[in-house]
Amino acid sequence: MNWRPQSADDLIGQARSVCAAQASKARRVRDVRNAACKLLLYGPPGVGKTTVAELVARELTGTALGIESFNGKEVTVDAVRSWMETLPYGSLFSNWSVKIINELDRCSKDAQDILLTYLDKLPPGKALIGTSNLQLDLLTERFQTRFQSIKLTAPGTEEIADFLRAHWKVPRDVALRIAVGSGGCVRAAMADLETWLDVEGGGLL
């Protein structure tokens, strides 16, 4: 399914309101000379954390060329040291440069330790946006105190069903069945929707 949310209006559940608020904040600070951004989005899988991170990053930079994305397992000690060496330099493409780390909690312990130093030295015009499937109290306290931390909760069954019906004209019984089966995971609902569209949806996609 070739569909990606383009704004907060394309999201559902708490992800929509969080994205709208953080995107608005990003628009306010992107021209502020002494601003930096350290944001951690946490909550269950598939509720829109990565999408919110990407949309907020896009508001800050104005271009995908100013954004780098990583999985926590890719973030090694050597990688963070390399980032620290380039901290004094800005982006060639934007006033802001943003790093997104998905599953931040999967960084190694040593990488987490040096990442704390990176966060402390983060200069204006730089942003680090992390996501985690863990509850906040399972992340180290040192991380908690360095980020603005926001929890995203799963949308309800009816909300997911209404979302599917509004965007893809899915019959109500099918939308409800998909929503119930998703268990609040929007990503799972979208995967099941794609399967249904491939088999029975015909030209609805």
TrEMBL record:
It comes from the Bacteria. GO terms for molecular function: ATP binding; ATP hydrolysis activity. SMART domains: AAA. It holds the Pfam family AAA. Residues 35-153 form the AAA+ ATPase domain. GO terms for biological process: DNA-templated DNA replication. PANTHER family: PROTEIN STICHEL-LIKE 2, REPLICATION FACTOR C / DNA POLYMERASE III GAMMA-TAU SUBUNIT. This is ATPase associated with various cellular activities AAA_5. It comes from Chthoniobacter flavus Ellin428.
